[in-house]
């Protein structure tokens, strides 16, 4: 049987918030992710405190006020590939997929469906996805004073290079 | 007969369990597997935002501006509340300190300031030696060291003018803090104030004090703060009072706005530690505020 489970602990998730006043970009390189291509299951988890911001004050506000990292230390996703059969993964080139599942941020869980790609590269599995998250959907309150500095919808980019798991 | 039935029952039960196992349960298993593996707990995590600003009220907190971040501080004290209606309860008078501080790294900061009180310039170096952390080899406290110097540029009367060296005062502080929870932080500050010049023989050149401070968050953006400096026994302790301050921190985004009540008029160590005269409980209370505005001069990467 072909390798079915792939794992990483050093995946990357970055998000980008663009407003006319200020662009904010943060990145974590401590994403834990697991993909089971046999059954088409996907899971990832990221420590909120691992997000690095270019400005230290932004990072502090993010952790202290917006996502409340001490109360909700992780964001997680668990879901499945839509209409997936293991045979769909080609030997080369990215395979577009749809992922459906539960995204939990700030203690709030939402069912989402987002596009992505899977690609076999040697014995590794590359996973990419880009989607938008609205902070308001996850009860992340932005005070009136800085509301214009933080986008209503934040672009999230997921980039994982998973290794075969035992 | 019975055994066949049992076998059949078991077999179908097992098959249905395998076939009907809902997908999400499996994904949840993957997630649980991810979260149960110990890599997360193997990572050292530093405690952040023990205090909102670089000051608690009059004195420093363990915090420094992040690398490349410049803070502009406006500190202001009105007159005493018990000065009466004619002085509009102190609001007619004001002393002010303007300050700039800059994070050379995330742990090392330098700052300068100018107080209207005695026309004093001050400068400081502040370094985060230890940071409270969890994970492997956790540290229960953060320790920041502070060294400041201040020079009074008053035209002293009567003559003779005082020499330049005599105008200098130095303060050395170890700031030890622990964030007990996201709401409660406590800090201790053993302090030495060295004055090159004192007016009277009975005054001490070296004044030792022990400070204590706490912050209790009331909401995500509002916190209650308290700060007290106990001057160790000696003539200065007999002649002056211990500095006490109570305040509110209000965070609004790029600003930290601090409102407070204190029996000290000066806003640098050489004033509020050995030279506090006000009796808090007699109404010698200076209402005041600190505003700090952060400017990011260079990005951290």
UniProtKB/TrEMBL annotation, chain A:
The identity of this protein, by name, is: YceI family protein
Occurrences of domain Lipid/polyisoprenoid-binding YceI-like (ranges): 3-163
- InterPro entries recorded: Lipid/polyisoprenoid-bd_YceI (IPR007372), TTHA0802/YceI-like_sf (IPR036761)
Q: Where are the transmembrane segments?
A: none
What domain of life does the UniProt record list for this protein's source?
Bacteria
UniProtKB/TrEMBL annotation, chain B:
Q: Which UniProt keywords apply?
A: Signal
Q: Where is the DUF5777 domain?
A: 51-295
Q: Please, which domain of life does this record's source organism belong to?
A: Bacteria
Cleaved signal peptide residues: 1-27
Mind telling me which InterPro entries this protein's record contains? DUF5777
Q: What is this protein called?
A: DUF5777 family beta-barrel protein
Q: Which organism is it from?
A: Hymenobacter tibetensis
Q: What is the lineage of its organism?
A: Bacteria, Pseudomonadati, Bacteroidota, Cytophagia, Cytophagales
